[in-house]
Amino acid sequence: MRRAKNYLPWLFLSPWLIGLVVFNLYPILATLYFSFTRYNFFNPPSWTGLDNYAKLFGDGLFWKSLGNTLYLTLIGVPLSLGFALLVAIFLNQKFKGVGFLRALYYLPSAIPLVAAAVTWAWVLNPSFGILNNILRLVGIRGPNWFLDPNWTKPGLILLMLWCSGYSIMIYLAGLQDIPISLYESAQLDGASRPQLLWYITIPMLQPVTMFNLIIGLLGGLQYFTQALVISGPGTLGPTLNGPPEGSMLFYALYLYTKAFINLDMGAASAMSWILFLISAVLIGILLRRFSWEST
Amino acid sequence: MGKHVKLAGRAGLILLTLVFASPILWMFLSSLKPPDQIFLQPPKWIPDPISFSNYIQAVKAIPFFLYLKNTIFISTLSTIGVVVSSVTPAYALARMKFRGKGILLPILLATMFLPFPAIMIPTYLIFAKLKWIGTFLPLIVPSFLGDAFSIFLLRQFFIRLPSDLLDAARVDGASELQIIRYVVIPLSGAAIATIAVLNFTFMWSDFLRPLLYLNEASHFTLSIGIQSYQAHHATSWHLVLAATVIFILPIFITFWTAQRTFISGLTLGSVKE
User: Structure pTM?
Assistant: First the structure.
């Protein structure tokens, strides 16, 4: 490496730097400003101080959307990580057709979210879906899934597990980085298979788990598309019910509704800023955990 | 490990794989059934006769080809933009020394993970000011200003290129731009292909941003077009399913053909402790 002409690196960086200022830094600051104003898009924003925040904290739907989002994130994400690790351990073996299986497990996370959501709305259709039909064959009456407020989020979690291919691949890469010598010496000492998993694999994968977890949490906080597709046209209507009974009203959906349907940009900006703060903490942990290779 | 455990594990994997594959299979089988066979209880598992009429009807009703054209147009231009604008920033971050570099990398990583809903209101207002709402521009132009994830991925690749090669070119009097053009890019085919495929699939699938920016049905992408059709025709499952199958087909094809590059590229961006 040599010290280049002073301006040249900045010239090379300029597309990204312009994008950074216009589409990241400015929006972050503007969101903060709007969150202290009343703003309906047509009239200029007028300063209202902490009004938006106070109203949000007294708004039952705000808490409902936050609660739904935390339910999905704090239950769904750890479950899908456990599932991903299990599948990755299976797929880390050498056998005929393992390449095909790896691709197969990755695929659902590569198909468009709308398509994945339509697929699951059909799979979990209470009367005509494959799951309840199979349950019926063995004499179990399946739940009403996306029509029953108690079953919507478990249904969405199943969809989340199905789409965990990205975590599976990251785990697989992590598993392949664990030195085999560790296992060999432990086996010489008489360690059993579950002991190897518990004392070597899981601790060695801890950084990878952390990475997957934070990516999962950040994704969970933005949960939007699947819920919109599955809960159908009612979600974004003026009644704002997030059917059935608001059980699929997630944070990003409520934010979107507030901003672009109710045109309450001030309150929506307050929601954005709260989301930004939560994400900033998560991203901070993510960056602190890893040195991301020295430069 | 005992033979039985191994066998049980294999059986478990096969069962799990069946469960995993069944949603797509179920949708595919359903899409080949005439409407009166879709809504049967108990179900007809295998369509008989196999009928492609849903597909013919779906592409007309949705209108599939218009949305396909829009989606391809947006995805292609945006992918070109990302590739063109991400190479030089990645090179600067990987291979050049300058003051202030130390803080740029954490900023790059932080923006990779910044949730779009947290910044979507001012972003929308920028495009509203520019009178770009209702056009493809908000989905294309920002791609020409670099993409954090792509820059990071390319940087990870560029720092591993052997220094000797770059130094040799410098000794021969090549400028930094020539080094990028004649040394770095030819060596980085796999990495560039990876970011291209990742961006293309991202744009192909993107939902929230097209929903925000495209308000006329004639501009819809497949994601919002299919969602909107499904929302307004709740009982036309046979058409929605057929359209969804064609929707994911290109992803399947790209994926099967580029599987190896894709998966290795995907983990290129993952963490090293």
Answer: 0.90
